[in-house]
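USER:
Try writing one entry.

ASSISTANT:
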Amino acid sequence: VVNFGLCLWALWTYRQLDPGVNSLMQGFSVAGRVLLMKLGVFVRILGWYLLGTMGISGPVFFFMAQDLFLGLLAFFFAYIALIVLAVFLALRYALAPYLLADRPDDGPSAAIYRSAGLMRGWKWQLFKLRFSFIGWESINYLLSAAVLIAFLYYADLLTADAISDPLWRDQAIAVVYSLPSVILSTLVTIPLSLWLLPYRETALAGFYDARLMAASQTTDRPEMPPL
């Protein structure tokens, strides 16, 4: 529900409607519809994913029975195919929150259906847009890892003697998951996240508006919400 409020804030920001902080809480006014939308998306993704899994597993078992190497190779490609399928399905319904924000009275099912129509032929473009933020997200991972490495260093667990100790792994895990290291490794990522999150969400809202604009110029489309 809070994430839906963020989508609504990003949509209003992109449209230069000057939303306030209170817009982040607007999702609670339609919380039931938001939850039904999320549940509908989850059921659809799960259903298609299970069908894809059953279709892909057949050739894997066939090659496994013929040759171990071919079976392992088929398993590897099947694993990649399932990842691609999961990403494909997630992108298919990625615009449902924005459509529900535009027309909440149409209900969650209409938003899900319209998302599938809007994303037809545009999944790769949305994937590239989302992937373009990977560099900024990597900085957060590096900052968090630097904090954990510092804790391991001050615990004398990065020396050659310490690493050769059979108990090194358990000691390192204890340090990494200690309360101070968890808190600091999380806090160090907050400044960049506070800048990146609204920037990324507004860019996604812009993608949604661009799709509405493109869809308004075609005739073979479901009814789209107004700009």
Remarks:
- The two ends are 23 Å apart (CA to CA).
- Residues 150 and 181 are 9 Å apart (CA to CA).
- The chain has eleven helices and no strands.
